[in-house]
Every structure is written in structure tokens, then in C-alpha cells.
Specification:
single chain; alpha+beta; four-stranded mixed beta sheet
């Protein structure tokens, strides 16, 4: 018997791509890149500090700090309990459960700064293809970008489709002017 959310669960490959998308956006947000928020965890100065503070695994610490900063920014921009975004794809935490078994060190991460929206689009194309269609419903004062995501194509898990579409919507941002794409469930 199929569970209610079974069709939307993330496979191991989907979970790895989701983690790569989250890290890509966190890298793009760093202060040496598109400077969407004050974070230097994935920059050379951040690496210098983290090598001294976390000498056993500085890259692991850097990626986790960057993901935590990104989640905090998204929760601030999208504070409603029903808001879903790239760092919280499902009210039941299916994405969180899928990612628990994957180390952030197992996915590729751009070492160079992402300094243009074109470079971000190139990174997205490499990970998920695209473009992905959505409809902008409204912009919030906190730079939230509420979008309507069309139904997932047949055979595509809904969480994968949601993640890819939300990631594609970041291209609505600009240098030093982030958007925080979200949808509601």
C-alpha cells in the first residue's frame, strides 16, 4: 500500500542534488559573490579562520555554517509556518530526513566566487537543467518572492520539482539584492 507522501520522497540522487542546490545558493550569497547576506563561511578569509577554529574538518564546518546562515535568512524572509522554500521543502521534513545521511563534503561546490546572475544560471543549468516555469504571486517587504509552482510532470517526484523550481526562481535576484523564493502548501 502506498503511503500518502511516498510519491514525493527524495531518492538518494535527488537528495544529493538538493544539497548541491542549497550549497550553490549559499555560495552565491557569500560576501565575495553576489553578496546577498553577510556570510564569509565559504570564502578564503572564512577558510583561514575555520582552519584555526575547526582544525579537524574546516570544510565541513564551512559548509554547515553556510547552510545554517542560509536557513536563518530564509526563515526570516519567509516566517509563516506554511511557507516552503529551498531550505524547507516540506511541512513533514521529508527533505531534512533525506539529507541526514549525506555529508555536505560529498557534493561539489564552486570554489570561485559566483559574481553574476549569469554565473549562477550556469551553475543551475549544470545541476538541474532548466528553465523551470513558475508564476510570481507577490513580493514581500523582506525580499520574499511568493511563487506558484505548476504540478510536477508525470513521473517526477513533487519535492524534486519544487526544489528545482524554487532554485530557478533565485534568478529573479540581483547583485546585493536577493530574493527568497517560496510557495505555500
Amino acid at each position: 500500500m502506498q503511503q500518502p507522501h511516498e510519491a514525493s520522497l527524495l531518492s538518494a540522487d535527488d537528495a544529493r542534488v538538493l544539497l548541491a542546490l542549497r550549497l550553490l545558493m549559499a555560495r552565491a550569497a557569500n560576501s565575495d559573490s553576489l553578496a546577498w547576506w553577510e556570510d564569509k563561511a565559504l570564502t578564503p578569509p572564512g577558510a583561514y579562520i575555520l582552519e584555526r577554529v575547526f582544525p579537524v574538518a574546516p570544510p565541513f564546518a564551512a559548509r554547515n555554517l553556510a547552510l545554517s546562515a542560509a536557513l536563518a535568512r530564509h526563515l526570516a524572509a519567509c516566517p509563516e509556518p506554511r511557507d516552503l522554500h529551498l531550505y524547507r521543502l516540506d511541512l513533514d521534513n521529508q527533505d531534512g530526513l533525506a539529507l541526514r545521511r549525506i555529508s555536505p563534503l560529498t557534493v561539489d561546490l564552486a570554489a570561485s566566487p559566483i559574481t553574476s546572475m549569469t554565473a549562477l544560471e550556469t551553475g543551475l543549468q549544470a545541476l538541474i537543467g532548466g528553465p523551470y516555469r513558475y508564476r510570481v504571486l507577490r513580493r514581500t517587504p523582506s525580499n520574499g518572492l511568493e511563487i506558484e509552482i505548476p504540478s510536477a510532470p508525470t513521473g517526477v517526484p513533487s519535492l524534486r520539482h519544487r526544489a528545482h523550481t524554487l532554485a530557478w526562481a533565485y534568478l529573479e535576484g540581483e547583485l546585493r539584492a536577493p530574493v527568497f523564493p517560496f510557495c505555500t502548501q
